[in-house]
Amino acid sequence: xxxxxxxxxxxxxxxxxxxxxxxxxxxxxxxxxxxxxxxxxxxxxxxxxxxxxxxxxxxxxxxxxxxxxxxxxxxxxxxxxxxxxxxxxxxxxxxxxxxxxxxxxxxxxxxxxxxxxxxxxxxxxxxxxxxxxxxxxxxxxxxxxxxxxxxxxxxxxxxxxxxxxxxxxxxxxxxxxxxxxxxxxxxxxxxxxxxxxxxxxxxxxxxxxxxxxxxxxxxxxxxxxxxxxxxxxxxxxxxxxxxxxxxxxxxxxxxxxxxxxxxxxxxxxxxxxxxxxxxxxxxxxxxxxxxxxxxxxxxxxxxxxxxxxxxxxxxxxxxxxxxxxxxxxxxxxxxxxxxxxxxxxxxxxxxxxxxxxxxxxxxxxxxxxxxxxxxxxxxxxxxxxxxxxxxxxxxxxxxxxxxxxxxx
Amino acid sequence: xxxxxxxxxxxxxxxxxxxxxxxxxxxxxxxxxxxxxxxxxxxxxxxxxxxxxxxxxxxxxxxxxxxxxxxxxxxxxxxxxxxxxxxxxxxxxxxxxxxxxxxxxxxxxxxxxxxxxxxxxxxxxxxxxxxxxxxxxxxxxxxxxxxxxxxxxxxxxxxxxxxxxxxxxxxxxxxxxxxxxxxxxxxxxxxxxxxxxxxxxxxxxxxxxxxxxxxxxxxxxxxxxxxxxxxxxxxxxxxxxxxxxxxxxxxxxxxxxxxxxxxxxxxxxxxxxxxxxxxxxxxxxxxxxxxxxxxxxxxxxxxxxxxxxxxxxxxxxxxxxxxxxxxxxxxxxxxxxxxxxxxxxxxxxxxxxxxxxxxxxxxxxxxxxxxxxxxxxxxxxxxxxxxxxxxxxxxxxxxxxxxxxxxx
Lengths: 408, 408
Prior knowledge:
Two copies of one chain form a homodimer.
Chain A: H1 17-24, H2 31-41, H3 48-58, H4 61-73, H5 85-97, E1 101-104, H6 112-115, E2 123-128, E3 137-142, H7 148-163, E4 167-170, H8 176-183, E5 189-193, H9 206-215, E6 217-220, H10 232-243, E7 246-250, H11 257-267, E8 271-274, H12 285-292, E9 296-297, H13 301-312, H14 336-339, H15 344-347, H16 352-362, E10 368-369, H17 370-377, H18 381-393, E11 397-400, E12 404-407
Helix pairs in contact in A: 2-4, 2-5, 3-4, 3-18, 4-18, 7-8, 7-13, 10-11, 16-18
């Protein structure tokens, strides 16, 4: 069974509402589909944006997997290697043994706030009380080398949010993150880790990791067994802010990871809250900077609830809201295949090679909007999308949030 | 010699610019005028608003002093007692002996920012380097029970402002005020005290008081020898904010005096700055509340300078700016006497007694705008102004900032 191409992130504008509603109706994937989603999402050169582009183009993960070697080698590159069926089966079995589960974009268990984000992870691994990730969440993040006062504030804020029925999400780091998880453990605490859900990091949080896997939830984009690397943290931070209605920054130095999370939050249209601190404490610098730039000053959970009130009451589930606008034009939903973009050879007024040369000529290491590329090349949006997909899979083009592309 | 009625606070609107310029040209008062100003300003029932109303009505302090007993007893009250010539002479002599001087509104030495305030003190006593009070000023105020960190911040902010050529004004209280004065002592430090300039309060600031009287300046609205009373402090705070382009609040508890100063600052159109602090420290509550309500977050003097920059560069001296709009209608400047409001008996269509009954009927203990009163009574603005003046002098009506009046 195949699912409709418009099930995955697509722009709000241009999606006829009837079709969009049908397309966004959530359902669990069949076991075979889930395996294909996992394989495709773990394939070489396939990040979230490419993943959804392939689904739109081929209508299903299975068809995209079939096309992957051919498509990626068209630009002269070595064919991209897909995750093997055996490896995927073994990852799913391992998740199962841990008592976790794999959640795919669009499934009922996929957090709706995150689903609306530009490059939402196609698959998530969840350990613990998976239902928690469907509740409205607020992120509480901050410094690893937090002061005792900072940790106390994080714990109290988290407990206060929990009392109001809000699940607290954080990154299971030392300091503020750990304090926030502890404060919300009884009411709902969700950790997003940079590595696999089964990897304890840092070691001092082992007890908390176990408590969350039992009484809270642990979420990861990366496969089981992945040790967290520096480059994983920004992606992890993007998921934290993506899950949340708003993020609260407690004690963050200038240029710290928490500020990156705050920037993602702003890009994702989330509320940003910051706890003020003395200018004499360098750990307050980041939060004070956020306040200077318009973050909501936060002393207690009441400050957060007052600001989020309108979002919490009478707010439609985020799943019903069409995804962000900065995506490639929507391919109409059904019938799935017929509506897929035609191959450039059939629709573009120039030859495929000429079109490809044109696109490469217009690209540079500086990211450019795909829309702008379409305008400059005077090709159809569908033709440009298809050629960009091939260039991506061949590793020649890099995707950036906001529907931007650059030459590698 | 008489000076023009429009020399004292009057509204921006309705003042023909040629006349206004002439009227606002500052000059020193003659010795006799100065004595009369002092006598009138220290007379019973004569606050700043009444003082300026009398000057507008009678054209000079001498004429107002002549009229005072008759005018104040018209409503059946005991005639208001004016300060005696002997007492005024002895106050001026005492100020002279201290090396201080009396500065009257509109004189070249009267601070121009303060001159534009609704109920600016008609006379000020200044001790020390009087020239300092003509420089652009920023107020640094805060908690008496300040923390060591708060005092350090106040000192550093004051020093940083001083380096930028800004004179720092504060209230010579314990804690933040004292630290601010110390930080700016070398570059320019002005204290506004609630009592007389010769009264040391609190005793622990005796050394600082002496240093300011020598290397800075001390300012007071009250006569020499006045012990500061609780009711003097809000008026003192109004002068501090009135003198300044902006005020910085460092450590202020909720509902503290510093917040009253901040409220005056907002009413006077001054910038409000606040230094953030931990929500766990009750001394941060007030400053954090100000930040929540739009104050500029301040960590260093650079934050203040960045915000005040446009005000400091190419800004016309405040003396040239017409005073606030919330004042009774301007009486044209010259010829002074002819343009004064006519007495109601001559101009109002109803008898003076009937008009008075009408006004009293419309008044209540809840302050009401004079403009509204004029509308409701269907009397001329001049008639209402004159009758209100009589009621004030008889102690039956109270004036409030913003051109509001209430029944006592």
